Amino acid sequence: MRILLTNDDGINAPGFAALERIAAQFSDDVWAVAPAEEQSGAGHSLTLSRPVRIRRLGDKRFAVMGTPTDAVMLALAHVMKDAPPDLILSGVNRGGNLAEDVTYSGTVSAAMEGALAGVRSIALSQVYAREGMGDSVPFATAEAWAERVLRPLLDQPFEPRTLVNVNFPALAPDAVRGVRVCRQGFHDYGRLRIVERTDPRGYPYFWFGLAPTAPSPGHVTDLEAVADGFVSVTPLALDLTHDQGLAALGARFGD
Ligand code: MN
Question: Which of 17, 23, 79, 25 has the alpha carbon at shortest distance from 54?
Answer without folding.
Answer: 79
